[in-house]
């Protein structure tokens, strides 16, 4: 009976050692996954920061371009009014002759 118990305990010990080995392998695999996910997250954050900076730059450029468009439209309007006045003056001068 003692030999049977010893044999049973040896089997349980062997099984426990196999389980420990399997768990250690799983730990190694999971640690590798964690490292990869951490690197991916860091890279994603870096890309996000770069995209935010690019967005701010493009928004500044857009505001500048819109300001220039508004200024040019005002200048164009002013020049169109001057042209109309000049045409009116020319027509008036021609009609006086």
UniProtKB/TrEMBL annotation:
Residues 6-89 form a coiled coil. SUPFAM superfamilies: Myosin rod fragments. Belongs to the LRRFIP family. GO terms for biological process: regulation of DNA-templated transcription; Wnt signaling pathway. InterPro entries: LRRFIP1/2. It comes from Dicaeum eximium. This is Leucine-rich repeat flightless-interacting protein 2. The keyword Repeat does not apply.
